[in-house]
Amino acid sequence: MSGQQSGSSGYRERNSTADRALDVLQLFTEDKPVWSGAEISEQLGVARSTGYRYLSSLVQSGFIAEGDGGFQLGPRIFQLARVARRRIGLVEVALPVMQELAKDVNETVLLTRRSGSVVVCLERFEVSRPIRLSYERGHVLPINAGAAAEALLAWLPPAEVTQILHDAPPQRFTPSTLVDPGAIQERLTEIRKKGYALSRGEIDPDVLGIAAPIRGHDDSVRAAVSIAALSSRVSVKQAKAMTTSVLDAAAKITDRVIELDL
Which CATH number fits domain 88-260: 3.30.450.40, 3.40.50.10490, 3.40.50.1110, 3.40.50.300? Predict the structure, then answer.
């Protein structure tokens, strides 16, 4: 019995030490990235000798590094952060923002990415009044039509766009679909100037699309966030407000993509 009690006591002690170690790590913030041993002990409410014992263990394991100015986060923390970032994908980063955007505009929101000469729908978030679309999550979309595709193409070098359109000849889906490569290039030039793409009935009749690019740390376009709505229920004034919301959402996702180096 005494052996079991000892084992239980040791288990509780290990948990207590782990909790204290986490308390130490959570002290480090952007506003205060360096702490002295005395400051940490005071924050933990323990004697300095006890505080230094925790710090010594964390230094030995690489979670904290000691320098001239005091203690700061160590290399092991950054290794774990890199592992965590690799586990976070674009969809996971974008989805909360897509949900906010959908709630704001009360329309369907899409996340798309270019893959060679096609566009892939990575995620789709519906609202209380969804519309019938010819594409779903995981579907491959045309490269030459729709706001999302145009936002993905607009910031590519014109020569690369020419090659893409050669590899995937433009298809006509509605009378509004652009199929002439020259006309498509002109449209892309306009989109670059405005910073967003707006299309009406290019893939699905009567569907309005508004899209903005999501960028990476090198400023390249990684994906696009867009909304799809029935043109008949969106006035010019509402379209302007929706455009602002889409641009804001793209900026938020871009900030996260750059922060996480996705």
Answer: 3.30.450.40
